[in-house]
């Protein structure tokens, strides 16, 4: 019986062993992305872009990537069009706003992939148009894939950009 109990306990520990996937919420990469998002809100483009690799591929709701320079231009247009800009995340109505849900995951190598370190964020973007005074609210999901140098090598952004782009176009047309 004693051998059976030892075998059961050993099987329990082996059965509960990590699969190699590690999800964290308050690690260095997650906290770096929180700072990165604050740089965006504060319109600190130099600090924001310092985290992005020079040859990064950035996908905005598309299978075609844009360059970091193109992203910077787009973000600068957002800040020229909207004030204030904010991001928020709350689990429930009236709950604590944590700014953004941020989690990092380290994936081991698999049959079809190399090891990967990924940070994902979810938040609601809000911006008030300088032209119309209208506040636009858009849910967003961004995925950051890290390289070995601690920079973001690939980024995937998912959000409905229709109202944001319309406000930017209206603002540009009004300034002509």
Count of helical regions: 5
Provide the structure class.
alpha+beta
- Average pLDDT metric: 90
CATH topology: Nuclear Transport Factor 2, Chain: A
> CATH first level: which class?
Alpha Beta
Structure description:
- With 176 residues, this protein is α+β, with helices and mostly antiparallel strands.
- It has a single domain (21-175), classed as Roll (Nuclear Transport Factor 2, Chain: A), CATH 3.10.450.50.
- It is 35% helix and 35% strand.
- The chain contains five helices and eight strands.
- Strands 1, 2, 3, 4, 5, 6, 7 and 8 form an eight-stranded mixed beta sheet that branches.
- A hairpin with a 5-residue loop joins β6 (116-129) and β7 (135-146).
- α4 (68-81) packs across α5.
- The longest helix has 14 residues, at 2-15.
- The chain is globular, with a radius of gyration of 21 Å.
Q: What is this structure, in a nutshell?
A:
This protein is an alpha+beta fold. Helix content is 35%, strand content 35%. Helix 4 packs across helix 5 (162-175).
Key descriptive features of the protein:
globular, 176 residues, alpha+beta, 5 helices, Nuclear Transport Factor 2, Chain: A
Please specify the SSE layout and strand pairing:
Elements: H1 2-15, E1 22-24, H2 28-41, H3 45-49, E2 52-60, E3 65-66, H4 68-81, E4 82-88, E5 101-107, E6 116-129, E7 135-146, E8 152-159, H5 162-175
Parallel strand pairs: 2-8
Antiparallel strand pairs: 1-5, 2-3, 4-6, 5-6, 6-7, 7-8
Helix pairs in contact: 4-5
């Amino acid at each position: 019986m004693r051998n059976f109990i030892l075998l059961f306990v050993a099987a329990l520990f082996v059965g509960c062993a990590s699969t190699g996937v590690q999800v964290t919420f308050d690690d260095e990469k997650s906290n770096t992305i929180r700072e990165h998002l604050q740089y965006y809100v504060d319109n600190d483009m130099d600090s924001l872009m310092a985290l992005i690799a020079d040859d990064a591929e950035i996908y905005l709701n598309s299978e075609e990537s844009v360059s970091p320079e193109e992203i910077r231009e787009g973000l600068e247009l957002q800040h020229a069009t909207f004030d204030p800009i904010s991001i928020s995340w709350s689990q429930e109505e009236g709950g604590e706003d944590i700014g953004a849900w941020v989690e990092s995951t380290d994936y081991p190598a698999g049959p079809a992939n190399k090891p990967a370190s990924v940070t994902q964020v979810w938040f609601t973007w809000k911006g008030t148009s300088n032209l119309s005074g209208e506040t636009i609210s858009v849910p967003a999901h961004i995925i950051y894939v890290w390289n070995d140098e601690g920079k973001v090598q690939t980024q995937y952004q998912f959000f409905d950009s229709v109202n944001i782009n319309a406000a930017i176009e209206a603002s540009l047309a009004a300034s002509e």
